[in-house]
Amino acid sequence: MNEQQARQLASNEALFRTVNEKIVGLNETFESLAQSCAFLCECSHIGCIEQVELTLAEYEHVRGNPRRFIVAPSQEHLVAEIDLVVEQTSRYFIVEKHGAAADEVERLAAE
Fold first, then answer.
1. pTM of this prediction exceeds 0.70
2. Helix residue ranges, H only, 31-99
3. Cα 78–50–33 angle (5° rounding)?
4. Is 82 or 6 the better-scoring residue by pLDDT?
5. Beta bridge partners of residue 93, listed in sequence order
6. Residue 66's domain spans which residues?
7. What is the total count of domains within the chain?
């Protein structure tokens, strides 16, 4: 995988992150009624529509690092060249970008 491909995959994931950040705003209203919220998988597969369940606190924990993303708990949602699983539960994996993908997501987060 070349640097441009890694950056494109990272951009795909950043798009899902943007959608999930809007979901946070909606779910904060209902947090007292529900234990968890449905978020979109933030894997780099642009056609993925799988959902993962997290509490708002779990989601904010992931957002604390711009290199980290939530993905569905399956190897199918990982790209070994850019993803390192740093935490995993039965509901989701947290992956951290490395290399050119990490540079790209940090650049996008700073915009």
1. yes
2. 56-63
3. 125
4. 82
5. 71, 88
6. 3-110
7. 1
